[in-house]
Design goal:
By secondary structure, this protein is of the alpha+beta class. The protein has 28 helices and 26 strands. The strands form five sheets. It has a nine-stranded mixed β-sheet with strand order 1-2-8-7-6-3-4-5-9. Strands 10-11-17-16-15 form a five-stranded antiparallel β-sheet.
Length: about 750
């Protein structure tokens, strides 16, 4: 730390307002270049008061232990969700102990950002260092910035010290009314055992079993009642005498106590005299535009209204503050809150879930062969009957028409790959509600669920259509009750943790998520890690992003699909209106495909085998194509996931090799790829290599430690890569089926060898 030191007598500045008191004070101007430069100021301090930026709670533990500081009181000026930066149980445990020992107080801002950086460092000999400058308590400040500080040294109790302390107190009173760990410490004081104390710490961090959460326990009670309601209203029998209750189909459903809206099969459809307006099946819009063939009579997907049903939640075993907060929000919707329970109308509870999570309540009921979605006072039920070939043909055609907007209106060099990955996204979306059933079947001490039950990550440019695709998938699995995802600006670590408490399996789709934010949402890394069969249901996560791939620890937990396409996005773009019209026409069609996928999943329960995941939905779709007598399109990902068949990372490498933008140099037992690209671009190329290649980026080069495996992956021998293989043919997006070795016929071009039929 470079310093300019001086001894200043403040007597001669006594009449100037910016100086206070009398007596000598030491002064130095210092340049802070790294963390140790700055933290050395604090070593051995009796007490520290601070107002500063800070992004690492574990640093507080380090300062109070490794730097032998007695106590620390700090106002964090920049963090809105500072608690979310506590990512491990050991740090949380240490923070709690330090707070209980009165050694640590972390004050959280309650207003705008406090940009000031002020430190009052009291030493054991009652001298005090008063520090002001640009240095933060943050990694970013130390690793990427050089900071300047001014350090005054005086005695505790001097007027200069008092004024400095008063200034810090003014910040505390004005900008903070809450401290870190407040609620947790109170909860720990009420814990009945060391085990309960540890469970509460783990859950606060986001690493504990979900079934110890008070909010989750309340929602478990609610969902049990919701399932009972579903069981009561959906058993349809042929003989009314055998029914526990009867349901009347009336012309004004809004006047019914409970109604099921479904086709009325009592009408003789062969008798035209019987086909009057009052007896027609509901028009659900399933009409084939080319053949004008009505499909409405073949549908069987009722919506059940249950306006008088109640949801009850026991509160005797949960934290009182949690119960009070939960009950207060429901009371405004008509709930009754008593000493040991909360009783709420079904509509109130469903609306509370949607408001709290931005997604509806959704439950898979294998025993009843139902999927239930909560929407106001309706229970929307799917999987009620098998589809006819005619309906299947319509549903599949509608999905294909959506996907084929790529070839009709998109601009891409990887048409088939993009369409295949779009279809893969549909398969994931239809599988996602059943993820908790797969979690139970696949859960074992030897298996990491986070690597099996992956999140969905859809990357692409801003005009790639990835957000619209995601929203369409949500519409299909919600019977058009959910038409958009959640804006990434409204999501933080708290939201990621919170959705795991609400006992819903409806996918949580985050739109326009920046890679930086995703990597800061720490619960993603062990999202399924603490799942148990007694946990509440938790939703799969879907991200759409304009950014490249995240860090490897996140990539391992994600199914990554690439939308390498651009659609007309402005009214002045050629083809804009035609593209919008075609898309609107597809979106307006009724498509109950998910209800039939759910029906097949629930009757077969393929998760019980403990082998597949999305592969089971892939198989069901192939069965649907066969039953509909419809050919699978070329781009349908039939054999394996689309991201493997059409590896967009491999396509990027192939294009640069073919275009002469990358050359290879030999290394001992390795090769190095040198790119004619900017350094930031090369990061993306390295990230797209499989881990087995043992790659590492350096400047504009990528070191590859497994050259033979890489060469096989890319479609060449190592010798060909080293000798130069650039040709002028365009790169296809077809999957690699054969690989040419160095001793084979070299008369063919790059693509004829690489993508042979």
């Amino acid at each position: 730390m470079e310093e300019l030191r001086a001894n200043i007598s403040f007597d001669k500045f006594a009449d100037m307002p910016e100086f206070y008191g009398s007596g000598a004070a030491g002064y130095r101007l210092a340049m802070v270049k790294d963390r140790e430069d700055f933290l050395d100021l604090f070593e051995g301090a009796h007490h520290v008061d601070a107002v500063t930026y800070a992004e690492t709670p574990d640093l507080m533990v380090k300062m109070l232990t490794e730097y032998d500081i007695g106590s620390l009181d700090v106002l964090i000026g920049n963090a809105d969700e500072y608690a979310d930066q506590v990512n491990d149980v050991s740090t949380a445990r240490s923070l709690v102990q330090l707070r209980q020992d009165d050694r640590l107080t972390v004050r959280l801002k309650n207003r705008k950002i406090v940009h000031s950086k002020i430190y009052r460092i009291v030493m054991p000999d009652d001298t005090v260092k008063l520090v002001q400058g640009s240095a933060n308590l943050s990694r970013n400040s130390w690793e990427y910035h050089t900071n300047q500080i001014s350090v005054f040294t005086t005695d505790v109790g001097t007027q200069l010290d008092k004024e400095f302390k008063r200034f810090i107190d003014q910040y505390r009173e004005t900008y903070s009314n809450q401290t870190l760990l407040e609620g947790l410490v109170e909860a720990l004081e009420e814990a009945d055992s060391p085990e309960e104390r540890e469970n509460r710490i783990e859950y606060w961090v986001g690493a504990g079993d979900l079934d110890v959460s008070d909010t989750a326990a309340l929602n478990q009670d609610a969902v049990e009642d919701l399932k009972d309601v579903a069981d009561q209203v959906t058993a349809v029998v042929d003989d009314p005498a055998e029914a526990d209750e009867t349901v009347a189909f009336i012309e004004e459903p809004e006047n019914a106590d409970r109604t099921i809206v479904e086709p009325d099969d009592s009408t003789d459809k062969d008798d035209p005299d019987e086909m009057d307006d009052s007896n027609e099946s509901p028009d659900v819009g399933l009409v084939e535009s080319d053949h004008e063939t009505s499909l409405t009579d073949t549908l069987d997907r009722p919506r059940v209204r249950a306006p008088d049903e109640k949801i009850r939640m026991g509160t005797s075993k949960v934290d009182k503050d949690t119960a009070d907060e939960f009950g207060a929000s429901l009371r405004d919707r008509g709930a009754t809150v008593e000493d040991h329970s909360i009783t709420a109308p079904l509509s109130a509870y469903n609306n509370q879930v949607k408001e709290s999570t931005a997604i509806p309540s959704m439950s898979v009921l294998p025993d009843a062969e139902q999927v239930v979605i909560g929407e106001d006072d309706e229970m929307i039920l799917v999987a009620t009957d098998e589809p006819t070939p005619e309906v299947l043909n319509h549903c599949l055609e509608t999905i294909e028409d959506y996907i084929e907007t790529v070839e009709n209106h998109g601009y891409t060099q990887s048409e088939t790959a993009v369409m295949a990955q779009m279809y893969e996204a549909f398969l994931y979306g239809f599988w996602a509600p059943f993820a908790n059933q797969y979690a139970e079947a696949l859960s074992s001490p030897s298996r990491t669920l986070d690597n099996v039950l992956q999140h969905l990550y859809i990357e692409g440019k801003s005009d790639a259509g990835k957000d619209k695709l995601t929203e369409y998938i949500l519409r299909l699995i919600s019977d058009n009750t959910v038409i958009s995802g959640v804006d990434a600006d409204d999501v933080g670590v708290g939201e990621i943790r919170g959705i795991r408490e609400w006992d819903t399996c409806f996918p949580y789709a985050i739109i326009d998520a920046e890679k930086r934010k995703i990597q800061n949402w720490s619960p993603i890394r062990n999202y399924w890690g603490d799942w148990t069969p007694t946990s509440v249901d938790q939703p799969c996560l879907i991200f759409t992003t304009n950014d490249a791939l995240p860090k490897s620890e996140f990539r391992n937990r994600m199914k990554i699909l690439s939308m390498d396409v651009s659609f007309p996005s402005n009214p002045e773009d050629p083809g804009f209106r035609e593209a919008q019209d075609d898309l609107a026409e597809v979106l307006e069609r009724e498509n109950p495909i998910f209800s039939y996928v759910a029906r097949r999943m629930l009757t077969e329960q393929p998760w019980t085998s403990g082998n597949g995941t999305i592969e089971d939905v892939r198989r069901i779709f192939r069965e649907f194509y066969a039953e509909a007598g419809r050919d699978e399109p070329e781009y349908f990902p039939a054999g394996e996931p689309a991201e493997k068949t059409y590896d967009t990372g491999r396509i990027k490498w192939q294009r640069d090799i073919q275009g002469g933008r990358v050359t290879f140099e030999p290394e001992p037992d390795a090769i190095t790829a040198d790119f004619d690209r900017e350094e930031y671009e090369v990061y993306d190329y390295e990230k797209r290599l499989p881990k087995r290649f043992m790659s590492e980026k350096s400047s504009t080069s990528v070191y590859i430690g497994a050259p033979e495996e890489f060469a096989e992956w890319i479609g060449y021998s190592v010798n060909e890569l080293l000798n130069g293989v650039a040709e002028t043919e365009e790169v296809s997006d077809q999957p690699v089926e054969t690989t040419k070795t160095s001793d084979e016929d070299e008369s063919g071009g790059f693509l004829s060898r690489l993508f042979s039929d």
